[in-house]
Amino acid sequence: MKSKHGHATKDNISPEYRTWVAMRSRCNNPNDQKYAAYGERGIKVCARWNDFGKFMADMGARGKSKRLGRFNINKGYTPANCGWVTLSESMNNRTDSRLLRYQGKKQTIAEWSRETGINKSTIWSRLKRGWTVGDALTY
User: Fold this and answer.
1) Dihedral of the CA atoms 70, 48, 37, 25 (nearest 10)?
2) What is the DSSP letter of 51?
3) Which of 1, 26, 74, 126 is deepest in the core (most CB within 10 A)?
């Protein structure tokens, strides 16, 4: 396989190229498993990023343990709305992340768990049993 950018050769496909292909597929291919959560919701890839070289020019190399993230999950893939993020940053920025407001701060259950030392499932089960947010986040 010949490529102009060097990120997809017969023996090696770079993480950036794999990410670019997956991003375009979930937004444009109705047969993609994730299309319902992206393309069907109107999430699009900007025209500039239909060119892998321009995607790389805007995003740069993917850091170790990073993934492509959208800062506003209701907007598409554009240079202004995307960056390389950690798994925990990505998990906190999902449509199904539950945000809890307590003592003037708004965070996900995972973030509160890290801050308080209380297991995520413990916080979740307390809330399901009707506990107040304050009680769920204290020992």
Assistant:
1) -120
2) S
3) 26
